[in-house]
Amino acid sequence: MDDIAAWLSSTLKQLRQQRGWSLAQAAEKTGVSKAMLGQIERNESSPTVATLWKIATGLNVPLSRFITTPGSERPVYDAQQQAMVVTPLFPYDPVLRFDMFSITLAPGAQSDSSPHEQGVIEHVIVLTGELSLCVEGQWHTLSAGEAWRFIADVPHSYANHSAITTVFQSLIHYPSSTV
């Protein structure tokens, strides 16, 4: 986790500086406070997955850019002490424009996601347990073996309302104008 936190910190700072943005400008573009962005850049705070998504969307980069470190086979991003663990399965593919993750949700865990870049599509496949997926205020319950595809440029949430751990995969496809 230390390697990923350091990578996240340096990657955020590098991307912000490449754009010539101050912390205040980055906060405006991402919807994440200037104070939080500064703490992340100084490696003083690890953002939640939802916050990391806001940063990636505001910077117009794939989420895996922050959590896939060079030379690491299977990095794991776990900012919520095992409530939601995100493991990239494939690094971002610039030709096919997708990220693919394995996500583990602890019993009772919920992650709320702000809208992604316009045109982003998510494909969710439940491997074990039961996933509650909310898209535009409408909840859907998916069991092991079931899948759902949705436009992810709207608010959406993932929740595990069961007593057992839920594992699902998420393939995120970015439109050609993104990343």
UniProtKB/TrEMBL annotation:
<dbReference type="GO" id="GO:0003677">
    <property type="term" value="F:DNA binding"/>
</dbReference>
<protein>
    <submittedName>
        <fullName>XRE family transcriptional regulator</fullName>
    </submittedName>
</protein>
<dbReference type="GO" id="GO:0005829">
    <property type="term" value="C:cytosol"/>
</dbReference>
<dbReference type="GO" id="GO:0003700">
    <property type="term" value="F:DNA-binding transcription factor activity"/>
</dbReference>
<dbReference type="InterPro" id="IPR010982">
    <property type="entry name" value="Lambda_DNA-bd_dom_sf"/>
</dbReference>
<dbReference type="InterPro" id="IPR011051">
    <property type="entry name" value="RmlC_Cupin_sf"/>
</dbReference>
<keyword id="KW-0805">Transcription regulation</keyword>
<dbReference type="Pfam" id="PF07883">
    <property type="entry name" value="Cupin_2"/>
</dbReference>
<keyword id="KW-0804">Transcription</keyword>
<dbReference type="InterPro" id="IPR050807">
    <property type="entry name" value="TransReg_Diox_bact_type"/>
</dbReference>
<dbReference type="InterPro" id="IPR001387">
    <property type="entry name" value="Cro/C1-type_HTH"/>
</dbReference>
<keyword id="KW-0238">DNA-binding</keyword>
<dbReference type="Pfam" id="PF01381">
    <property type="entry name" value="HTH_3"/>
</dbReference>
<dbReference type="InterPro" id="IPR013096">
    <property type="entry name" value="Cupin_2"/>
</dbReference>
<dbReference type="InterPro" id="IPR014710">
    <property type="entry name" value="RmlC-like_jellyroll"/>
</dbReference>
<feature type="domain" description="HTH cro/C1-type">
    <location>
        <begin position="12"/>
        <end position="66"/>
    </location>
</feature>
